[in-house]
TrEMBL record:
Organism encoding this protein: Rummeliibacillus stabekisii
Keyword Zinc: no
Pfam family, one: Acetyltransf_10
Name this protein carries in UniProt: Acetyltransferase
Superkingdom, natural source: Bacteria
């Protein structure tokens, strides 16, 4: 069974970092010092499991502008296109919904734009590069 949850323990945090490392550092080649950043300390983290194995992750942080920023959403390659990304996004958005914040923003890697559009995010910026990867800003009101 697959389930997604908010990170509550150090082990769950390390599980989320494991998935992020597998996807962003090993698969995509993003340098580890950029993958882990200053926001990890204060962000709320999420992890998904299949048979006690961590398979997906993501994080949410709130800004001073009353915006929730969704970042580091990732699913291990073997588990993609099985609606686990959607499960993770629903878990993040449920958490955001529990706050007063209704505006959600994210920077989508361009290949992932259809994934976010399926969840009603709209593009709000031209393409830009970060660590050599093309992104476009997207947002949604929940
Ligand atoms: C983007 C990512 C999180 C999607 O996770 P996933 O579990 O494969 O996505 P889901 O199965 O929940 O997809 C839901 C829908 O989004 C769309 N979608 C997902 N991946 C897609 C892709 N690569 N191309 C086109 N549409 C896609 C499809 O409409 C899909 O529904 P369908 O499979 O019924 O057609 C995953 O591909 C991933 O981890 N990629 C590497 C890390 C990354 O780029 N993260 C995003 C950073 S902004």
């Amino acid at each position: 069974m697959v389930f997604a949850k908010i990170v509550e323990t150090e082990k769950e945090l390390q599980d989320a970092f494991f998935v992020r490392r597998e996807v962003f550092v090993k698969e995509q080649g993003i340098p580890q010092p950029l993958e882990i950043d200053e926001y990890d300390e204060s962000a709320t983290h999420f992890v998904a499991y299949f048979d006690n194995r961590p398979i997906a992750a993501g994080r949410v942080r709130f800004t001073d502008e009353l915006v929730a920023v969704v970042e580091r959403v990732c699913v291990l390659p073997d588990f993609r296109r099985k609606q686990i990304g959607i499960l993770m996004m629903n878990c993040l958005e449920d958490f955001i919904h529990g706050s007063e914040i209704r505006k959600v923003k994210l920077n989508a890697q361009t290949h992932a734009i259809p994934f976010y559009e399926k969840q009603n995010y709209i593009i709000t910026s031209p393409e830009f590069l970060d660590a050599g990867i093309p992104y476009r800003a997207m947002e949604k009101t929940i």
